[in-house]
Amino acid sequence: MKAYGIEVTGLTKRFGEVTAVDSVSFAVEPGVVTGFLGPNGAGKTTTMRMILGLVTPTEGTATIGGRRYTELDRPTRTVGAVLDAGAFHPNHSARDHLRIYCAMGGHPDSRVDELLDRLGLAEHAHRRTRTFSTGMKQRLSLATALLGDPSVLLLDEPSNGLDPEGIAWLRTFLRELAAEGRTVLVSSHVLSEVQQIVDDVVVIRRGRMVAAGPLAEIARRRPPTVLVHSPDAEQLRALILDGTRGPDAEVATAEDGSLRVSGLTAAETADLAAAAGLRVHGLGAEDSSLEQLFLDLTQDRAGQAGQYEGDAR
Ligand SMILES: Nc1ncnc2c1ncn2[C@@H]1O[C@H](COP(=O)(O)OP(=O)(O)OP(=O)(O)O)[C@@H](O)[C@H]1O
Predict the structure, then answer these.
(1) Taking every annotated instance into account, which residue ranges of this chain make up the domain ABC transporter (predicted)?
(2) In terms of CB atoms within 10 Å, which end of the chain has fewer, N or C?
């Protein structure tokens, strides 16, 4: 199996007035799982469909191993995709379904049983797909995508509808596929569902890329935030914002009146309050969960996006 990466350059798609994808560029490397993250409507599916040659870009290119999907000699041996994990004929058994796709792709029949085994579906091979749970449908979709033993896998929202056990299974499975040297791109609108699964991320918001790179590195770049409970909150806020604490100091007031300070450490904030004789009843580093990072990256705050931008590897 040859290792192919995905390269997206200046990719843009306009549907009439709507710019679904706006000059997006990133690279997806073999051997790791890459999360393609963004809220609903951010443009993830449209980007994946352009990579798969199902939607024609308005501008830019998407290539797999240097070639557009439509230029690949044997596409299903290079790329496997799951865009809709529920799309089966309800009266076909899992084996019938795989046999049909196996024949269409020109793959050896032996792949059907190999994949039923690998995906833990062997004992359900004769059941009609309409009786399958969401998790079983997800596995059958993955089996279908893997029939051609592709080196690149594109999965649109594979964690959707899975219970924690299903997500744990998916994590192990996708990690195995990446360890085999495959390129794995997984979209999601919920970072917490995939944060244990992905190594790298590409984050988009309203069609534009806001961050790309190893998740751990992007999380480290997030400025620390300090939560302050103070009866003198307004004075402290004014003090922090007076411009002499450095250009990066910012304060937001939470609903309960406490302050969320960024651009200053907890010690700097405490010293500032003490020097001005302001009372502080509580102070600590805010929980910098990745979900908060994701919200910071994708919510509508002008000028917020650029500070996390990294090089797409
Ligand atoms: N065929 C189409 N015609 C018109 N607009 C479209 C079409 N396909 C997508 N869009 C619009 O493009 C934008 C991006 O949609 P897309 O489905 O790519 O986002 P997404 O990030 O995959 O979101 P979701 O997680 O909700 O699927 C949305 O505003 C959507 O309404």
Answers:
(1) 6-231
(2) N
